[in-house]
Amino acid sequence: MAINQLPQSEVNTSVSSATLKTEDLLPCFLSVLQEAVEQGFITSQDANKVEELVGEHGELTIEAYDQVTKYKDADPALLSGFWYYTENSQETAGWMLHEDCFDLLNELAPEGTYFGAHPGDGADIGFWQFDEEKDW
User: Which of 14, 44, 62, 115 is positioned for an S-S bond with 105, CB 3.0–4.6 A?
Assistant: First the structure.
């Protein structure tokens, strides 16, 4: 098995809150995945997949930063931390977020939980316990 579930101590743990923007969620989710690789929860081909995603995200970030500095009359040092995905890379970033990261994070989710939006707050993303009273 290349992905081991996180411990029960991670149940009802928020990973990101107050935003649903891809440019905020993707680096956050990749950070959680990288930490899971470092701690040995993700191994083998899935660990390689995480590293590929991190590398691809780095390329998207560089492309976006280049576009910002190209069209702004500003010192690049002032733009540190300010970036966005270009029109061309927005689709790729969305695909990485919704297809790759969510799948991997759901596999990591502790038993009896899912990775996704909190039932009471759609902008609170984390590992949440299934509500036994609801039909899943």
Answer: 115
Q: Which residue has the tokens 């190209």?
A: 70
This prediction's pTM: 0.82
Q: Which residues contact 107 (CB under 8 A, 6 or more apart)?
A: 3, 5, 46
Task: Flag whether 83 is in a domain.
Answer: yes
Q: Which of 100, 136, 128 is nearest to 16 (CA)?
A: 128
Range of the domain at 100: 8-116
Distance, CA of 110 to CA of 36 (rounded, Å): 13
Beta bridge partners of 117: 125
Q: How many CB atoms lie within 10 A of CB 132?
A: 7
Q: Distances from the Cα of 78 to the Cαs of 38, 59, 69, 75, in angstroms?
A: 33, 21, 10, 5
Each residue's pLDDT tens digit, 22-69: 888 999 999 999 999 999 999 999 999 999 999 998 888 777 666 656
